[in-house]
Amino acid sequence: MKDVEMINCPVCGTKFIPRTFYPEDAIFSTLDGKKLSGFNGYISSRGVKPQEVILSTWKTYCPNCNYILNFVKEIVRKEKLHIQKGISNDVSSKYNSYYFGFPFGDYTQYLKEVSKKMEDGIKSILKELDIETWENLYIIEDHFKFLVKFYANLEHYCDTKLGMKEEKDLIAKVRKLKLNENLEKHLLDLNVVKDKIIKGDYELSSSEQSTIRTVLVKFVLFLLKKQLESLINKKELLKGYEFLNRTDLESEIKSYISHYLYSTFNSDPKSKKQINIFLENIFEEAKV
Q1: Over 70: is that where the pLDDT of 89 sits?
Q2: By residue range, what is the domain housing residue 55?
């Protein structure tokens, strides 16, 4: 990540990060009285042409005094060409134009840099959680197979990620996760349902079927929330970039997370509701 370089306003001395740069082309009058911009306008313009002229500029303004600053965007130069023909050396002229990008980083560029840093952190979290293991459960339509696989994944997560291998009781493992009361109750109840199905014929109620379809999303959101809070709550998040609006950064991160969640779990309307609540609350609960 590059160092932050601020503009120093020549009028009021304020140092600032430009919100953005606006392009503006120079306008030239042609021999037939038309107004043209850019290289063609310069070549077609009447009168003596200077050896060098600015064709366009980047404009920005000081947020303190509103002074407008101009920086070169494109410049044209009349340059000599030496053409060797036998023993003679003919000299002709050619117009060359040169383009310059933004002279300073603007607000959007710095925001994207910090957002990219956060996105990389989220990707690491998803990889660490082995999130694809949970994603793959979503396509299992048979409720019994889903429950068996879900609780197998849950035990594996507790054993490998949380060091609960010595704990053999699944109920104890679930309680050690420190879930919210509603999610913990669902996991414990569905574990009982799973055991009943294994022992013999058991017909799932409509309520139990509904809970089965939503418990996966709720648990994945719990895993993400637990890890994301440690990432987005760091005081170092905006260190060196204090000029960034935290709300803007949160919006960028929300966009990235929501794209992942909706593309993975959005086939169920109840899942969409859970995702919306998650996105609304994740930053409120993790303010620095």
Answers
A1: no
A2: 7-99
